[in-house]
Protein 1
Amino acid sequence: MNNSIKIAPSILSANFSLLGEEISKLDKTDCDYIHIDVMDGHFVPNLTFGPTIIKSIRHLTKKPFDVHLMINPVKKYLQDYINAGADIITIHHEIDDNVIECIKFLKEKKIKTGISIKPKTSYKVLRKYLNHIDIVLVMTVEPGFGGQSFINSQIQKIKNVKTLIGEKKIKIEVDGGINEVTAKESIYAGAEILVAGSSIFITDDYQNNILKLKKY
Ligand code: DX5
Ligand code: ZN
């Protein structure tokens, strides 16, 4: 098993009517983070949850909350997500707010900070963020929904991001369509954090499904 690979189950695929139990169940597994997809029905065509729900599940695990904000605007809500217990906050390059200002705000609050790019966004836009961030989140599906197929062209993008990062201590996270096959391809391309919804929640044995993704 590759211990440098971190797994972040996306609770978008959890049973929302049993959300607390789902978090407690993940807490007993070897997953590394809890990935929380915040969607506003505007930046993406789907609506999920906000800080109140995140706060309500915070006490159920000590695992870091990896909060993926698919919202626009973002800046005026950042403090709410910090208050709710986010450990990592990832925002999108494609928002209207000044991204550098958002990053500075998060870093001042000592929050691990990620920048995500959608599949059609060039990796080159990341250059201006590299001195400030901890994570690059490469979307391997169009953000909005779980259960979509991995977009293969993003493998080359992961490789390009890896080269761009060079010696900097920035981790590459991938999100969307991650299963045993695409996990392996993404890891070989340079990804170290794998987000997975469907392939973890597909059966009751979350631990086994998590270990399957870690084995490369
Ligand atoms: C999509 C979300 C993903 C999604 C992944 O916009 O950001 O985190 O839940 O789900 P799967 O693994 O099913 O593609
Ligand atoms: Zn996500």
Protein 2
Amino acid sequence: MSDPLHIVILTGAGISAESGIETFRSEGGLWEQYPIEQVATPEGFAADPALVHHFYNMRRAALKVVEPNAAHLALAELQTGLEARGGSLTIITQNVDDLHSQAGARGVIHMHGILTSLFCSACDHRFDWVDDVAHDMPCPACQTTGGPNKSVVRPDIVWFGEMPYEMDVIEARLRACDMFVSIGTSGAVYPAAGLVQMAGQLGKQTLELNLEKSQGSHFFDESRLGEAGTIVPKWVTEVLG
Ligand code: APR
């Protein structure tokens, strides 16, 4: 592979696994503990807002006790190194943890939202929040409150059936890059899982770094298997020479 200068990276839950954050589809993963339709759909939120807030409160609280791992740190180093030679790194993450930013990465695109943000479904006011959310929490902007079984303030998370954020920016970055790299994702959820095909159609180099073969491995020019904390720093050293 020739030396890439402008790289787009898509990350998934696997890059945060070694930081102690559960993935979704592994044995005993999050989707075995909590049915998707109950905690990750607008319908589930309407049916039982307290359960949904509990699910995200638990994951938001976990952020206070986890640290970025060697893979997150290596990507922040890659971004600095590429920019020093006039290049760029765009990190698009499916993850709703903030470990890329905690590791020093800049301009991270959270296409599925982020745990440390909430928004009001009455006035669309978005605001940072790192603590638990009660289902009857009033919106700090419009003061609308929930009711016994209705919550106006919701996690700023893209649920199934909703449109991921910044798809226009994502497509533009993909068109402008030299290389597309996928790290720690099962390739199970679109449109994220389709980015490798778009990159391939655009003639970009494509590389997958994952613990095991994913549903999209056959779309990549190259697939390297291993733990992100080991194979990502190794790859970054290769790229930065
Ligand atoms: N290093 C590298 N890869 C790992 C590691 C690790 N230490 N541990 C697990 N993996 C890999 C798994 O092999 C799997 O392919 O990470 C992937 C995690 O897959 P999922 O649990 O499906 O998570 P993800 O791909 O991020 O899910 C995508 O689905 O449920 C929705 O919105 C949710 O963003 C999520 C999306």
Protein 3
Amino acid sequence: MTVQFKLPDLPYDAGALEPHISRTTMETHHGKHHAAYIKNMNAMLAERADAPNSLEDVVRLAAREGQKKLFNNAAQSWNHAFFWQSLSPEAQSPSGDLKSAIEKSFGSLDAFTEEAKTKAVGHFASGWLWLVSDKNGAVRLTDLHDADTPITDVSLTPLLVCDLWEHAYYLDYKNERPRFVDAFLSKLANWRFADVQYRAARSGGGWSFPA
Ligand code: MN
């Protein structure tokens, strides 16, 4: 059986993030960019009989084998599905154990926000800003290039991600990445999702791409 993956639905209406991200951006980003990564990956998977059934394992296999084209399309398929989960129509802030972990790693929530802005704005060209946790519950920010994803490192659990590719913000913000990053951090970040991921970082599991 050839393994094939479906484009997951957005977890909210495409217009739900307005005015911070327009319906047009969401429809293009999800319906064109994300859909193309999945289509390209499925075409490559159709060529091989030994593809794993989970997208996480496809990403790790492609990374191990140095199959760059498969890796790029599989990782982008995964990263975007995780990005949709990382956004919420309702403004939130970190709470509970995750808030404490952020304060421990960064000094304060404000210091975390400043470092996130600096890393996201300073990231050269395309990529992603990830908040990750290790298995002991220590959190940190890491900006990765192009399709790179923390799921190739099984000691890390991603908590949240912000897409830094221009296609994520150019229709709404043109070249003003700092304004998009501000909106992500102050209005859009899904801290309830991050909290579920944070608990999973220590107990195992966490969000996985729908099979
Ligand atoms: Mn994107």
Protein 4
Amino acid sequence: MKFLYSGPVFEMARQQFDVIADHLGIAEDERDRLLLPKRAIVVSCPIHMDDGRTRVFAGYRVQHHLTLGPAKGGTRFAANVDIGEIAALAVWMSWKCALAELPYGGAKGGVTVDPRTLSVRELENLSRRYMQEMIPFVGPRVDVMAPDMGTNEQVMAWFMDTYSMYQGVTVPEIVTGKPVGTGGTLGRREATGHGVAFLAFRAMEALAIDPVGATAIVQGFGNVGMHAVLGLAARGVKIVGVSDHTAAYWDPKGIVARDLVNHVTRVGALSGFSTEAAIDAQTLLEQPCDVLAPCAVERVIDADVARRLRCRILAEGANGPTTPEADKVLAERNDGVFVIPDILCNAGGVIVSYFEWVQDLQQYFWSRDEVMDRLERALDRSWTMVIARAKRDGVANRTAAMAIGVERVMKAKQARGLFP
Ligand code: NAD
């Protein structure tokens, strides 16, 4: 069973879990039940390409547990997606949802494809076929999908439409992160990045850093990175570095956030934004700043990078950006990088997804202010719990956050017992 979920990303999720299981003193025979996913679905998605050929793409969905309610998690379209990575992301979703006290288990899905190589029609074909293959395994009370890397509101609208056509009725609550006009919620688009910025401000407050004139570097300029940049800049933080998969820029004088957004909206990526500010993408992470926010892919901060980081706050917008080896380095450094761990830092997305699901189920929609206010209160609650727990137990913020999440899932499983 364990070997099905192989690869460096699942290994990382397992190592992190082992730390927590030791910390909480979880019995050996309870550990597999908590860590290993309830089920994994692998499908072949054949589609017609524009040139008349048929191509088959591999699709995955991993549901980690359904102990607290439906499974919940994004769907990733990326060239290197495999079952181990998807399983790891599903496991992290479980601890994240539990930390935020949402009535969900964790899930994640994906298709091994670089969506940038597809035409719009091919992307629609693939999105619809993927959802069609998943219909027997998902549902508003079973597993609720959302966007992740390489997918967006449009893909969610196709997912929702495909599922609804098979049911014969409109079922908006089958996915979250939809366009507002089709049952999506106000505030979902910016929720994750807004949450990253909101928690970075909490950390600045704790470290007595004035946001006005403080500096930030953001890796990744997609949904999360872009809104993190906008959220930070809105309160006076100077954006001194940004990167995406095409380019990296560093300018100690500051880069205007709106100019970045306008460029990416026009061109589709950061490439071509500037010639003077160009910097090597890896070197960017190691420049001095108050806030470093990795908002792209996993494992970008390994032990070597961790030794060279010159940020004061590491705000993890991405899932799994920091390896367990890097965590050890950060814990040993006596100049103290303050880590806002991913399951806390990027929880804004799933919290507002939960609000969207609730609104869809009730067919009663909230104002943007209501959404953002509830989001900030939810993040504040988690933040306070994590900081208090880290202090009480003398552990890293990541250990504290994961311990709260794992403990909640474990207690629910223990209370429900083992069937039959
Ligand atoms: P996205 O597809 O909208 O954007 C991804 C961005 O990362 C793009 O700008 C891309 O160019 C960049 N990128 C990819 N590889 C890179 C690399 N090696 N170096 C620098 N930049 C690179 O994806 P997203 O939704 O913004 O998700 C980003 C991360 O945040 C992922 O780890 C995802 O799991 C996590 N996350 C997303 C949400 C959400 O609501 N979208 C919620 C929680 C966590």
